[in-house]
Design a protein that fits this description.
576 residues
């Protein structure tokens, strides 16, 4: 309950007033039948019109008060539960923002979406129902029982006989439903993951004409969710007929016993009417309590899933940071015997005992075959992952000793996947620096060779970008992402194959601008084309997770077989 306590405390008045108003409304539930019985037995039986009118007026006032109390109780219940849910959702989202890449991979994107949306909604619904019924139902139950015994203790005993059977049935239903709700929520995870993947990759699906395949895949996932939902919810549906059976059987017994008493004058018609109403209230209150427990079962399953997120200790954090205030000044990088696996203790390492030193301001090219560990190598510098063994140092300090904020503020990364967001070109660029002036935007765009094509748009820097940059070419997206990274004014700049979609002339222009205008920035460029890194101060050649060689183009072409193989193969294909 710790994750809810803070928010409940903040909106304590809702959690106080909602039960109070609902309890006051419940009080009217067992007062009205009693007055109605008197109207029938005393007023109607004796033809006492003033008595009927007077008590009818009291019933009207009570009904109006019940209406007001019910509305107020519902209002505060909705307000309190919604605000607690909003607060917990905000906390959960903030927690997810602290996750490392491996944490997100462990949960899956679809599962995290479900937990922050659907699971919190289930908890919100339960809180609302709890505030409206947890106090109201017992008050109505006890009040109706007391009034029943006051009217006729002999007949009231019938209700006490039925209650244990109804309680046992409710317990069995809840026990069966609980694990099914967990399975249902997990199936919602699968559905969200599938939908997200399909919509994100819609262009690929259409280009391969795989719409029918995706429809069939979705049909299977959707059907599975339907089956799991029916399996879980049919237990809740079972509550209604079980309660109805209990009410009907009890009513028949009451009418049979009361009928005999009426015949011998031991009970009046008005009292029987009130008694049946109290009976209905008792069983309705029990039914409502059972539904609270059923909703609580589903909310408990959602709460467990939410707790997994909230209690997850991120793999990467500032816990060991002893130099949190330090800001990267030089931009030197050193790897000391670094090894890393994505799947711990399974298979060969992605990086194996890599050691290298990069001086401040150097332009370093990184090249190697697919799967050689290039992207993993650069991902360790801003601590997107932590090495399993060895150390990564920036400015001679282990990156684990630096705060994540200061480290990542000093390192700009342009990943293989170019991610842009809905909004204008300028808004996307200002992800690098939200306070940047228009002149700064134009300057970094000129370095990234993006200014010219941006100005060709009718609205220039105010041009709207579609979701994911769908209305831009691959090369345009890459150049915008480079400009956005430059706007951070980093000490270390990492380009992970980020010019693969631009032509060689534009690639060369970007590199020239880097050399002349970013001489103070340490630049690491992963490239498939050797032409993109030939003029680098040094080139790292990675081969199956190991550093095969390190040197200039001239040195490597003479001494490194792996580099020679890549160089001559590209030369033959006309890439040089």
């Amino acid at each position: 309950m710790k994750k809810y306590k803070e928010h409940i405390k903040k909106h304590w008045y809702c959690f106080l007033l909602a039960p109070i108003f609902m309890t006051l409304e419940a009080a009217g539930e067992f007062i009205l039948p009693f007055i109605n019985a008197n109207i029938i037995d005393k007023g109607a039986a004796n033809g006492d019109i003033p008595y009927i009118l007077e008590n009818g007026f009291y019933m009207l006032l009570i009904a109006a008060a019940m209406l007001a109390f019910g509305v107020l109780g519902a209002f505060f219940a909705v307000r309190g539960s919604a605000r607690v849910a909003a607060g917990v959702r905000r906390d959960a989202f903030a927690r997810i923002q602290t996750f490392s890449f491996s944490d997100i991979d462990r949960f899956s994107t679809g599962s995290l979406i479900t937990r922050v949306t659907n699971d919190i909604t289930q908890v919100q619904t339960f809180l609302q129902t709890l505030m409206r019924g947890f106090f109201r139902s017992p008050v109505m139950l006890v009040g109706a029982l007391v009034m029943s015994f006051q009217l006729n203790a002999e007949i009231a005993m019938v209700i006490l006989i039925v209650l244990p059977f109804l309680a046992i049935a409710t317990f069995l239903i809840i026990k069966t439903a609980s694990p099914r709700y967990t399975v249902m929520q997990e199936q919602i995870d699968t559905l969200n993951t599938g939908i997200g993947e399909t919509i994100t990759n819609e262009k690929v699906i259409k280009s391969f004409v795989r719409e029918e395949y995706e429809k069939e895949k979705f049909r299977k996932i959707n059907t599975a969710l339907m089956d799991k939902s029916i399996s879980a919810l049919k237990m809740m549906i079972l509550m209604q007929p079980v309660s109805a059976l209990a009410i009907n059987v009890t009513t028949l017994v009451v009418v049979w016993v009361a009928g005999r008493q009426i015949m011998i004058g031991g009970m009046e018609i008005g009292s029987l009417t009130a008694f049946i109403t109290y009976l209905s209230q008792v069983l309705t209150a029990l039914n409502f309590l059972a539904n609270i427990f059923l909703q609580g079962t589903r909310a408990a399953a959602s709460n467990r899933r939410l707790s997994e997120v909230m209690n997850t200790r991120p793999d990467i954090s500032d816990d060991g940071a002893s130099r949190r205030e330090y800001r990267v000044e030089k931009g030197s990088i050193e790897f000391r015997n670094v090894s890393f696996r994505y799947f711990k203790n399974v298979g060969a390492p992605v990086l194996d005992d890599v050691s290298v030193k990069i001086e401040p301001g150097e332009f370093v090219g990184i090249i190697g075959s697919t799967g050689s560990g290039k992207s993993t190598f650069v991902s360790l510098i801003p601590r997107l992952y932590d090495p399993d063994a060895g150390e990564v140092l920036v400015d001679g300090i282990n990156v684990k000793e630096l705060s994540l904020y200061e480290l990542r503020e000093s390192v700009a990364v342009v990943l293989q996947k170019n991610t842009l967001f809905s909004g204008t070109v300028a808004e996307n660029l200002r992800w690098g620096n939200e306070e940047a002036a228009d002149e700064e935007l134009e300057e970094v765009c000129r370095i990234a060779q993006a200014d010219s094509f941006i100005r060709s748009f009718p609205d220039g820097y105010e041009t709207q970008i579609g979701q994911g940059g769908g209305n831009l070419s691959g090369g345009q997206k890459q150049r915008l992402c480079i400009a956005r990274a430059l706007l951070k004014k980093p000490k270390i700049m990492i380009l992970d194959d980020s010019t693969s979609a631009v032509d060689t002339a534009t690639d060369a222009a970007i590199r020239r601008a880097f050399r002349t205008q970013l001489s103070h920035v340490t630049k690491l460029v992963i490239a498939q084309r050797i032409s993109s890194v030939m003029d680098a101060d040094k080139i790292l050649v990675l081969d199956e997770g190991r550093l095969a060689a390190c040197g200039t183009h001239e040195e490597l072409i003479q001494s490194c077989e792996a580099y020679q193989e890549i160089y001559y193969s590209q030369k033959e294909e006309g890439h040089e």
